[in-house]
Amino acid sequence: MVVYRLSTCTLSVSWSDPCAGRYTERIWCSGLASVAAICVLTGRTIIRGDRVFRPRTREMRVRPDCHNMILAETIGDCSDLEFTGA
Questions:
Q1: pLDDT value at residue 69
Q2: Interacting residues of 77 by C-beta distance below 8 A, sequence separation 6+
Q3: Which residues in the chain come in under a pLDDT of 70?
Q4: Pairwise CA distance, residues 16 & 9, whole Å
Q5: 49 within 8 A of 5, measured Cβ to Cβ
Q6: For residue 51, how many other CB atoms are within 10 A of its CB?
Q7: How far apart are CA 12 and CA 46, in angstroms?
Q8: Distance between CA atoms of 82 and 12, rounded to whole angstroms?
Q9: Residue 41 zone, left/alpha/beta (φ > 0; ψ -120 to 50; rest)
Q10: Fewest CB atoms within 10 A around its CB: which of 9, 11, 19, 34?
Q11: Reduced 3-state DSSP string for 16-40
Q12: Which helix (H) or strand (E) element contains residue 41?
């Protein structure tokens, strides 16, 4: 998984999975988890109300990764992430 921070509230995420497919430079936006989940970056538990990043869903069709989430605190801990925003 490759993650670039675009701004304080958006990420660009590229990843591939043999079962789920390939996702290149998808925009993920910050928000609060509305359901419990597992962080796709770390495998840590996400509970309802945690600050998370999830794929932006503006398209009419629902993508298979629309329910994935990354804990926002995990991104804060990753000092090696490239910041590409202004």
A1: 92
A2: none
A3: 1, 20, 59-64, 76-86
A4: 23
A5: no
A6: 14
A7: 20
A8: 10
A9: alpha
A10: 19
A11: EECCCEEEEEEEEEEEECCCCEEEC
A12: none
**Total residues found in the chain within this entry:** 86
How far, in Å, CA of 3 to CA of 41, rounded?
A: 10
Distance CA 84, CA 33 (A): 25
Question: Residues with Cβ < 8 Å from 83, sequence gap 6 or more?
Answer: 4, 5
Which pair of tokens denotes residue 20? 């789920």
The token duo for 66 is 């629309």
- CB-CB neighbours of 70 under 10 Å: 24
DSSP code of residue 55: E
Residue 80 identity: D
Per-residue model confidence (pLDDT) at position 16: 78
Structure tokens that stand for 60 in this block:
């009419």
Beginning with the edge strand found earlier in the chain, give each strand of the sheet holding 10-17 in spatial order: 70-71, 51-55, 21-32, 10-17, 2-5, 82-83
Tell me how crowded residue 22 is: count the other CB atoms within 10 A of its CB.
9
